[in-house]
Amino acid sequence: MSTIDQKLSAEEVILARHSVRKYQRGVTIPDAEWNEILELAASAPSSWNLQHWRFLVVREQENKDRLLPLAFGQQQVSDSSVTVIVLGDLQANLAAPKVFADATQEFRDMMIGQINGAYAGNPDVARDEAVRNASLAAMQLMLAAKAKGYDSVPMGGYDKDAVVKALNIPDRYLPVMMIAIGKAESPAHPTARLPLSDLIINESF
Fold first, then answer.
1. Where is the Nitroreductase domain (predicted)?
2. For FRET with 71, which of 38, 59, 60, 178 sits at 20 to 30 Å CA-CA?
3. Are 37 and 148 in contact (CB under 8 A)?
4. Which domains does the chain possess?
């Protein structure tokens, strides 16, 4: 367990996480520590517990360099320890039998019927759920990384079609965001935040 694990509370991790765009090149996250980060990220909540996310992990330098032009030259893609493409599963309903394998037959049949009915009844459900739940996991991934002493930045500025082609991503999966993770080369600058009075609507508009 690292020092930062022992010292930072959940509140401190949230407040300490800032988007970092300059990373120390050549830093390797040990496999055991990286797996702990992924385990923490994978504990995120999801609709029907279908766990709609997949983490496409790019750690080899050659492959990170291949992504650099697809991310419009954003150097953090190449310099960070890991670049993760967070994918949303457009067919997450197919995971329901496995998710509910240990449930009673009656409950399993009820849940699978409910899930398949929702997916069949509205063409927007698959995409909405894929994006919504993958985003929850993405935020948890960044917080888990920070808890282990690593910085991150979420990225939407990349050529999604080119990334799909370069990494052979099946049609089932939708790229939701790219996240660079590693050790900051220089500290991130905290960004200004709107006051809560601009953000909170109590009860109704």
1. 14-183
2. 38
3. yes
4. 3-187 (3.40.109.10)
